[in-house]
Design goal:
By secondary structure, the protein is an alpha/beta fold. It has helices spanning 5-17, 35-47, 51-54, 74-85, 106-117, 137-140, 158-170, 179-215, 223-261, 269-290, 295-309; strands spanning 2-3, 24-29, 60-63, 94-98, 123-129, 144-148. It has eleven helices and six strands.
Length: 313
Amino acid sequence: MAFSKEEALRLLEKALEEGRLGHAYLISGTPDSGVDEFANELAGLFLGSGEIAVQQHPDYHAIEPGSKSRRLLIEQVRELEDAIHRTPNRGARKVAVIRDADRLMPQAANAFLKTLEEPTDGSLLLLTSEMPEALLETIRSRCISVALYSKDHPPADSREERLTAVMRKYFATDSRADATAAFGLTRVFRDLLEEAREIASERMKEELTTEKAHFGKTTENDWDEREESLKASAESEALQERTRLLGLVANYFGSSLRHLHDGGTNPNPAESLRLIRCLDAVEKLRSSLERGIQEALALEAGFLELMLASRVE
């Protein structure tokens, strides 16, 4: 289930006070959900410094993609591991943050596994990602997942606007919650993804053409390898968009659930349960995609389950 930043922080603060805080968390969400800010807030709580000062705390250590390829390299992970294994400068706690953890190179990801499996005393490991399904399963399974949803806001682009409209259409009070509706929602969602893939692909083709025009006569680049790299980048962008759109679907029900409980009166238990079932169905769909189940099949099965979960009983 996805949470707002405030809800998630409140739960983890309570866990910290009760001595139940885990040693590693994977914090994921859409670009506007504030995963990095949340990681800093949690780190500030853990170190007792507050969010504002935490990045200057001597026991706060963070890495992020910084190479030309926007990848996290094994050298960065080694430096982070060295820092987290040193004696704390203040108190007995240390925090290590890996931003955009889905950008870990395979060697770097494998090197970090030992730290996840054998954490040092008093350490808190925080990984942030907008695309958690791109992380190794062995890393995801060793972290407690915290999914954040974004706050209510106007649609930021045409795809978001179209998805919002179709959600209102298929999940209105008097809408049909059946297989036909599930198929319609799946078709719209896949069309949006295909549009994102085509745009990313065209942009990468233009980038390759530009590079060849500028450098083709002066360098001996392996253009086939460069083309494959750009194709992989385009698909990565499409997967990020898939994560974002699924976050919007979850936020649709999460917002309804918040409004239901913020109304100042006793919420309808049946409606509350229905919305929770819908959120669970979205998380199950996200999990299916993370496990590598074929996208088209996962979406068809996931949206059918979501549609059935939305039925009023």
